[in-house]
Design brief:
The chain is an alpha/beta fold and 491 residues long. Helices cover 49% and strands 12% of the residues. It is built from 21 helices and 12 strands. The longest helix is centred in the middle third of the chain and has 24 residues, at 285-308. Bound molecules: D-mannonic acid.
């Protein structure tokens, strides 16, 4: 079968939507770090609508770790299929906004030159939570992180997102190419502020004049990004080939829902993303807190407890009556009371819609995918809510069970004694904790609760929090997730 490319675009099956603009005429105005599925299913689609009218905003996508996506995109002239799926069916579209795809390992000079290019005005990022090399509990750059130590000693071969970004910014300053927008699209709270602090701290450690340039010339709007985009599978690739009549090695498959709320805090020209429905606001905080706590907090709860209960996907976990009851009660009783409703949003309707989104049967989203990197995710998804509940003197028993689910999962064995493939930057530490606990669940819980980068010095030392999480960890080990959940819900 022939592959999707500019040369074959005209052969794409007639019911697949194609770019209605001259793709080859686009210029690169955005550099995106982390050209994975989420970017291609979200920001690149908003941008695809903008470039039809304003061709200066083509994207140069950069792969930081592996060349797989950049090589495949390059072979397809940057084109790929975006397939939206739910119970009512599927709709395919070819996206043309990605005009260049580079791999840092082989194209470093071109990546840095792009960030320093006068025609580029924005660097957007989706490098996942751990990609910022920060302390998840405080949000500060971790100067002892091996990648940061390396990148400060060898800025010319920087491999971390902060190191690479600062290398590009230094080149931009040297080229006098003007101000820049850095737009974080990862699920971190106050993500613009966090990335601003990380980039400034890294620049400061290199050269304080460079840090001053960052302060005066780089804008870091915060954003809330939302769309459920499971990792693309071989079955998706086969499905898309059938729909197109052409092979596409890097399609993305996702739900119809999407949201992008962006803080109006730019230092340089920007694409008119609002023309395709992005919301530009003065304060993103209520949107991102709502989304991180309700959507991502429920996702993580369903991922850990759902996996332990034998569910491979979120669709199955959220259709399990006990797990559904737990996350619905967690949302209504414990999370919603900590939130300020964003303008125009009904929080209870938002919760109900989330349950429908989780139960999208056309979109198997693996619990193990969401379970990854819990040490980096828990603080903004569950622990901030617990801090607010404690401050209000209110109960947090559902959230404590979710945290216990993470500890039980991260301990590395499932309920049948099988090994869990835990994937987390702290997984060696988890293994050490479990090995030193002599099969005592309470000691395992204590070892995890002592992890300051996750729990901070406050929560980790909070007696009622420790007691509640420990009790649940012990129950999960001794009685299993089913019995623990049933007893929990009966109270
Ligand atoms: C998920 C998110 O993988 C995860 O941890 O919770 O990727 C989630 O699907 C998105 O944030 C939805 O916008």
């Amino acid at each position: 079968m022939e592959s999707l490319s500019l040369a074959t675009l005209a052969q794409v099956a007639a019911d697949v939507v194609r770019p209605d603009y001259d793709v080859a005429a686009l210029r690169v105005g955005i550099v995106h770090l982390g050209i994975g599925a989420f970017h291609r299913a979200h920001q690149a689609i908003y941008t695809d609508s903008v470039v039809a009218r304003d061709p200066q905003w083509g994207i140069c996508g950069v792969s930081l770790k592996t060349p797989r996506a950049s090589l495949a995109l390059t072979a397809q002239d940057g084109l790929y299929t975006a397939l939206e799926k739910d119970a009512s069916g599927a709709r395919a579209r070819i996206v043309g906004s990605v005009r260049e795809a580079l791999f840092l390992g082989s194209d470093r000079a071109r990546v840095v030159a792009r960030v320093a290019d006068r025609a580029v005005h924005a660097v957007t990022l989706t490098v996942t939570e751990k990609g910022y090399c920060h302390d998840p509990a405080t949000g500060e750059l971790n100067l002892a992180h091996p990648d940061i130590v390396h990148d400060l000693a060898h800025p010319e071969t920087a491999a971390s997102a902060p190191g690479l970004l600062v290398a590009g910014i230094a080149a931009r300053r040297a080229a006098d190419a003007g101000p820049l927008n850095v737009v974080c699209c990862d699920n971190l709270p106050h993500n613009g502020r966090v990335v601003e602090a990380i980039v400034t701290a890294f620049a400061e450690a290199r050269d304080s004049a460079l840090a001053d340039w960052v302060r005066n010339n780089v804008g870091f709007p915060s954003t809330m990004v939302d769309r459920i985009v499971p990792a693309t599978t071989d079955a998706d690739v086969a499905d898309v080939a059938g729909r197109l009549g052409l092979a596409d090695a890097v399609p993305v498959v996702f739900e119809p829902f999407r949201q992008w709320v962006i803080e109006d805090r730019f230092a340089a020209p920007r694409p008119a993303w609002e023309e395709d429905g992005a919301e530009l606001v003065a304060d993103v905080a209520p949107f991102e807190t709502m989304k991180l706590r309700l959507l991502n907090g429920s996702h993580s709860t369903l991922a850990y407890l759902g996996f332990l209960a034998g569910h491979a996907t979120i669709w199955q976990a959220s259709s399990d009556p006990d797990l559904a009851a737990l996350v619905e009660r967690q949302m209504k009783e414990e999370i919603v009371p900590t939130l300020v409703a964003p303008p125009g949003t009904d929080l209870l309707a938002y919760c109900a819609k989330l349950m429908t989104r989780f139960r999208n049967p056309a979109l198997p989203h693996r619990t193990q995918q969401i379970a990854m990197d819990g040490s980096q995710k828990l603080p903004q998804r569950l622990l901030g809510t617990i801090r607010d509940r404690i401050a209000a003197g209110a109960s947090f028993r559902h959230l404590a069970l979710a945290v216990a689910g993470w500890i039980r999962y991260a301990s590395g064995t499932d309920e049948r004694g099988g090994t869990i493939a835990v994937s987390d930057p702290m997984d060696m530490t988890f293994t050490r904790i479990v090995a030193g606990a002599g099969n005592d669940p309470a000691r395992i819980a204590a070892g995890f609760l002592d992890l300051a980068p996750v729990f901070g010095s406050d929560l980790g030392a909070h007696p009622a929090f420790r007691e509640s999480v420990t009790r649940n960890v012990v129950a999960l080990f001794k009685e299993g997730v089913r019995a623990t959940l049933a007893r929990h819900l009966a109270r």
